[in-house]
Amino acid sequence: MQDLFIRTGELLLPSAGVDPTAWACVACDQYTSQPQYWREAAALVGDRPSALQLILPEAMLDEAGTRIPDIHRAMRDALAQGTLTPGVKDGFILTERATDAGKRLGIVALMDLDGYDYRAGSQTLVRATEGTIVERIPPRVAVRRGAALELSHVLLLMDDPLMRVVEPLYARRDRLTLLYDFPLMMGGGHLRGYAVTDPADVEGVFAALRALKERQSDGLLFAVGDGNHSLAAAKAFWEEIRPSLSPAGQADHPARLAMVELENIHDGALVFEPIHRVLCGADGDVLLAEMAAYARRKGWTLATSDGGQPIRVAFGGKAAVLSVGGSPFPLAVGTLQAFLDDWLPDHPGASLDYVHGDDTALSLADA
Fold it and tell me: Can you tell me whether residue 235 is helix, strand or coil?
């Protein structure tokens, strides 16, 4: 529906005979500082058809020049050889992913990129939830320029406390067609998908979304919970080609759409974890001194005592918890990001990565 920027569409799935566990892989923005994960996944897949052959992991952005032509070729081959087939021709897919946290539900749909803007201060219906690292966008746009397929790991989060969008469909899943049911590779959990094609079911989703939109006071319906950079790349590519299209061409061009999954932030299995900042190419002791100088310039206090916003720092076997006082940002992550945003442009040899998991962050800090 145009007012919601959500559409039904044709969604392709692996054909019979394709191993779904080998086909489905982790999102391209995961394990960005752990290339070993991707090597292990490639070894597990071997020469079987896999989405690994159709994506550019962010851990390998420096190989974009050689990988992207192979990605485009693999996409064309997947279509020509019948590796993929329409699972849904005009509808959604209801998903159930079982993990240690429980069963997380979602609806796979298409999103109109005209309803989204990743830039800070955006007031669009769909908005980013983290700052965009612009250096990560050009390689992803290059993938999209010659792509025959749209792959996505973008999660759009809804604030639906009454659980009226996804959950009613799941309660009726026994009368939906089961499309797939298989374990994910490398401990990713278990995945099931159901076709949502009945007009009454489709309209029920749209009606629930319209009611949800009417209850929003700030015009925000969806927050990008994962895949910020992939969605930003889709938007950048659409803005690149849109001026060359007629109004009619713009209306139905496939680049205007991105595949997304709608999820409810009130889903009990949707676990929110800290996103740690990993800074490479910097001396830890010098960085701490520059953080202290930055805090003084801003009129903040920075100490190792309690009472302020805690920021845990670790490097080279050292660890400390800094306490920041007087920051205008309500959360410690905002305070830290403000410093890094000011600091990075003056240090071109440094790079910033975002990782989940305390153990992963600490192991990288000691590397």
Answer: helix
Mean pLDDT value across the chain: 91
Bridge partners for 103 per DSSP: 98
CB 355 within 8 A of CB 32: yes
* Neighbouring C-beta atoms of residue 243, cutoff 10 Å: 7
Please, what sign has the CA dihedral across residues 43, 59, 189, 97?
negative
Q: Classify 258 as helix, strand or coil.
A: strand
Q: What is the pLDDT of residue 256?
A: 95
Whole-angstrom distance, CA of residue 20 vs CA of residue 273: 28
Q: Is 308 helix (H, G, I), strand (E, B) or coil?
A: coil
> What's residue 304's pLDDT?
76
> Tokens in use for 305?
């005592």
Alpha carbon 133 to its chain centroid, in Å, reads: 13
Distance of alpha carbon 97 from the chain centroid: 16
Q: What is the pLDDT of residue 126?
A: 87
134 band by pLDDT with thresholds 50, 70 and 90? low
Residues 10, 86 contacting (CB under 8 angstroms): yes
Q: In this structure, what are the phi and psi dihedrals at residue 171, rounded to the nearest 5 degrees? A: -65, -25
Instruction: Provide the CA 317 distance to its chain's centre, in angstroms.
Output: 31
Both tokens of residue 170? 């799941």
Distance CA 318, CA 224 (A): 34
Alpha carbon distance 64, 61 (integer Å): 5
Per-residue pLDDT band at 2 (split at 50, 70, 90): low
Give me the amino acid identity at 159: D
Q: DSSP code of 290? A: H
β-bridge partners, 157: 223, 263
Please give the share of the chain, as a percent, with pLDDT higher than 90: 65
